[in-house]
Specification:
The chain is mostly helical. Helix content is 86%, strand content 0%. The chain is built from 3 helices and no strands. The longest helix is centred in the last third of the chain and has 27 residues.
Length: 84
């Protein structure tokens, strides 16, 4: 993978995470699928970038970020299923 592509993925991932944070902050009742889905996409894209431009601390952070997003999505799916 070339460095330009990796950097582009990193910038798009960063934009996703910033968007999700802003969305969660401004929305009265944020849609968890939007919030956690965009966070997961951002973490995945930043991970692509970090595989080329390795930074172990940031890579670890993205792993936790993705795990929390997956947990949030799973919770949202369970809650949606339990509603009549």
């Amino acid at each position: 993978m070339n460095e330009t592509f990796a950097n582009a993925c990193g910038f798009v991932g960063m934009a996703c995470i910033i968007f999700a944070y802003g969305y969660a902050t401004q929305a009265r009742q944020p849609n968890p699928f939007v919030q956690h889905g965009v966070n997961l996409a951002g973490a995945a894209l930043l991970t692509v970038s970090l595989l080329v431009n390795t930074n172990l601390a940031s890579l670890t952070l993205e792993g936790f970020w993705a795990a929390i997003a997956i947990w949030g999505l799973a919770k949202a799916f369970r809650e949606r299923r339990s509603k009549p």
